[in-house]
Amino acid sequence: MPRSTAHLWFIAPALTLMVLILLLPIGIAGWLSFTDYSLGGSGYDYVGWKNYERIFTRSTYEKMFGATFRYVGVVVPLSMALGLGAALLISSLKRWGDLYKTIYFLPVMAALLAMAIVWEFALHPTIGIVNRTLEMGCGTALERLEFWRAGCERTFPLWLTDRDTAIWTVAFIGVWQGFGFNMVLYLAGLTSIPRELYHAAEMDGAKSGWERFRLVTWPMLGPTTVFVVTISIIRSFQVFDTVEAFYPQGGGPSKSVYVMMFAIYEKAIQQNLMGIGAAITVVFLGFVMVLTLVQRRLVEKRVHYS
Amino acid sequence: MASITISGIEKSFGDARVLERIDLDVAHGEFLTLVGPSGCGKSTLLRIIAGLEGASAGQVHIGDRRVDGVRAADRNLAMVFQSYALYPHLTVAENMLTPLKLRDLSARERLPFIGPLLSRAKRRALAAQVQDVAEVLKIEALLGRKPGQLSGGQRQRAALGRAMVRKPAAFLMDEPLSNLDAALRVHMRAELAELHRHLGATFIYVTHDQAEALTMSDRMAVMMDGRILQIDAPQTVYDDPAELAVAEFVGSPKINVLPGEIDGAGRAFCLGAPLSRFIAAPPGPVAVGLRPEHLALVDASDPDGIDGQVVHAEHLGSDVYLHAAIAAGEHRVVARALPAEAAALGVGAPVRIGRRRGEAMVFAPSGARLRFVQAPAPARTDESRVA
To answer: Which of A43, A286, B188, B372 could serve as a FRET partner for B130 with CA atoms 20 to 30 Å apart?
Structure first.
């Protein structure tokens, strides 16, 4: 039987594109991370592991990892929990469900750059609506709380410009912006749970909502949760536009919001240090890759039932 | 184990009335089938008994206890669903353990990690119960598998096991066999009936398949358009249907319905031929029902026969059902014949079909059954001989 080469023609376009726009750039980034290349420079030198050494020893990059992991650590669980909670509440509504869906989904659709400006105004230490509202609590019973007493005596938190609160504030905005998307995913997951399973649970004696949730809803949402976790992790690792909008000059108060994507941008584009930029990119890719694989191994085995 | 009494149950969805004043008594240990075409309200009635749906009016008693307003979880009934509704993330054993855990363990004993430590002995007893039921159903080998790894018949058994394991007051079954293939369905019919005898429990079984109702139940309730038309033993329902709709629904192939009339003397005629018995009803048109086995091929010389033409023959091996066009193609009847008789008859062959004596059923135009009165026939011997 003559061997046909037709199959090569079928996969060739996809294969070519994948190599050209995916594998090749990653390979080049990998190579550049071992050099001191800069854009427009006449030549470059091979520097070995020097770039990586810097990433894992210098304090700037320590801050980078700290900011990134804080952000991911807050945004992923909170946006998941809020998304699931909102989806459960909305799916239990008989009316107005669509209205709530729209409201919660609005931040997802809005341009984050524009929203960042709004948040910047709202969180302004003196004229922002947040601190103005908090000030109204001064002189009332609320002042008995430690937070208010300190706020009224001196000043309420500076939010975006205090190095202790900046990353949490940015993470809060990330949650606000992202949980609507998770809510939509969970809503879709909820509709695919067969009604009969709830009836079976009722007949089996699951009386409280919590028992039904544990017996039916949560396990049946397993595949959705895997997807939501993966997507949320990757999206929060990629956070860039809020940071760039709030702190165009270098990653927030004492670099407390210096997340990885912003570091790549600052090093490689603003300072034209392609080598170190490429090295951070490779580390970033590694993180996402490892997390995705671990998460797949751990969770997927237990959530696909057929 | 308990009896179940339903009185005056009504159910409407908005303007649509689904159930109209249903009264039903299910004795302790009885196998009662609710049978009817889809949309007749049988599943709704079952769900009202289960407590998964509220009735618009009426009462349900389980044993001596009135259960309207008691939620399904507290009624101590078990249900087998059409889709089985097994929890896909749990193994068969865990599925069967779930109702036991939810009922017999306290909230504290059900806590993860600490719970099993607090209730070791109890849990061991529950696992033993699961094991016992698995043995009865012969599914011990499947206990460690998840529903996704089971065939339809095995899932069916697992669902039965989950229902049986906590010894409920009654079993409710919502078309549990309809997702199985034909051969397995016939097999499971026998097994379910056997299981019922073994358990001695009250079964309420919903199906649209009249064959399941006929083969398994102690009594069957034929439902149509939200009403129960007849409740009786299967053979009685088949032999002595109370309404034309029941006669048409029960029996396969379907009963033959031919136009007839009653004359002034109370004598019924079918296609112009008189029946032997009399009916106490005013004269007018009626419908005459004849089951396929009440018709037979007769000699061409038989004076009582009706001429027809074979349009189709269903060979079932032991029997042949001949579909014949009679009265110049205006009506069709199905007659049962022996394979030997029918072997030579191809499509288009002329046949002569005769009625067996005393089997015809007469229905009023409203569908109600008109009973024969055993009045002696007048001395017109030439006609009384017929049919």
So the answer is: B188
